[in-house]
Structures are given as structure tokens and as C-alpha cells.
Amino acid sequence: MGQLIEVEHVVLGDVAIFDTDRSLSGQDGETFVGAREAEDAATFPSQVAAALYAHEPQLASVYVYSNTISVRRPKEWTDAQAAEASDVIRNVLVYYDENRE
Q1: DSSP secondary structure string, the chain?
Q2: What's the CATH code of the domain at 63?
Q3: Once rounded to an integer, what is the mean pLDDT over residues 8-28?
Q4: Is 59 within 8 Å of 73 (Cβ atoms)?
Q5: How many C-beta atoms lie closer than 10 Å to residue 14's C-beta?
Q6: Distances (CA, A) of 84 to 12, 58, 79, 100
Q7: Whole-prediction pTM value?
Q8: How many domains does the chain divide into?
């Protein structure tokens, strides 16, 4: 159950921008500056942010706006870290492990 999200990303130093094939928020973007803030909110963007923080707790911030997610790290991104974050986003709607990529 659940669909995979198509994700493309570009890295600009300590910020990675993930572009998805579907809208993840309304026209009001949401910023999360820690796992606790993401877990305490009750929105779909907060669920995406919480999944990213669960994968990498040291993230500096996650901003979700429509079909774009901007994620800031304390240090520059490596290709592997950006690919792993893309996988987290890709699978955020998947509920059963057999459907994960």
C-alpha cells in the first residue's frame, strides 16, 4: 500500500533541494528545525520532516513547500547522503516493506 514518490535532487553546499512528482504541502511552506518539532506537528510535511530526521538526526532544518523539500545539514552533503535522503522521501508514503524500493 502506498505509492513511491519520484525524487530528483540538486546539492548546493550544505543544502540539498529535492523535487518530487507530487505536492507535499499547501501553498504555505513549513519549516522544521529539529526532530521534536517535526514529531509534534500534525501535518503531512511534518511527517516527511520527521522521516528525514529519523534517518539523519543531525540535520539543521527541513523546509517543505509544495513539491519541493529543502534540507540543510551542518556540513556539505555527500552524494551518498543525498541519495539516502532521496530514498527516505521516495518511500515516505509506503506502508509495507515489500513495496519499498
Answers
A1: ---PPPEEEEEETTEEEEEESS--S-SS-EEE-SHHHHHH--SHHHHHHHHHHHH-TT--EEEEETTEEEEE-SSPPPHHHHHHHHHHHHTTT--SGGG--
A2: 3.30.1370.70
A3: 94
A4: yes
A5: 13
A6: 16, 14, 9, 13
A7: 0.90
A8: 1
Cell numbers 522521501 correspond to: 89
CA–CA distance, 83 with 11 (Å, rounded to integer): 11
Per-chain mean pLDDT for the chain: 91
Q: Which domain holds residue 52?
A: 7-94
pLDDT digits (tens, 9 = 90+) for 62-88: 999 999 999 999 999 999 999 999 999
| Residue-level pLDDT at 28 | 86
C-alpha grid cell, residue 2:
502506498
